[in-house]
Amino acid sequence: KNIYKEIEIEYGKTPSDNGDLTYLADQGVLLLNKYLTVEEHKPLSHKNKMYDLLFVDIISYIEKNNKPIIYLLWGNEAQKLAKLITNKNHIFINSTHPSPLGANKGGWFNTNLFKKCDEFLLSKEENPINWIKN
Fold it and tell me: Angle CA(94)–CA(100)–CA(101) in degrees, nearest 5?
């Protein structure tokens, strides 16, 4: 919900709030939570060393691609991966996690992180992301 709220703040329109993010995947956006799942009301309840190792492998693989790539590192756990992002054609943008616990403490709303993605893509002569589902 907070992702949708921030998109509305930045673009003045509300994306469909049915939870279907296929329209982003169709544009090349990969949304992947570092720990893949969590028990309700128990942050980091599935924190596991195997997930950490998996993400090192995922980032290492992606870093071999020279296409412009943006990593949105949401929250402290994701931001630990920044040191693995070394390809000069890639950037990362940090923010707090969009969960209610993180977003409502500040550092999520009014950050323009989606617009920053578009600005980077345009600077690389790539199409921006349509963050609003038509």
Answer: 80
Distance (Å, whole) CA 43 – CA 131: 27
Residue whose token pair is 């993180």: 102
- The model's pLDDT over 1-10, given as tens digits with 9 standing for 90+, comes to 899 999 999 9
pTM as predicted: 0.88
Beta strands in the chain, from DSSP E residues, in sequence order: 69-74, 90-95
Total Cβ atoms within 10 A of residue 78: 20
Note the pLDDT tens digit of each residue in 63-111.
999 999 999 999 998 999 999 999 999 999 999 999 888 898 889 999 9
Spatial separation of the C-alpha atoms in residues 98 and 36, rounded to whole Å: 15
Q: DSSP labels for 60-92?
A: HHHTT--S-EEEEEESHHHHTTGGG---TTEEE
Instruction: Report whether pLDDT(16) > 80.
Output: no
Question: Which whole-number Å values give the CA distances from 24 to 93, 129, 132, in the listed order?
Answer: 18, 8, 9
Task: Say if CB 101 and CB 107 are below 8 A apart.
Answer: no
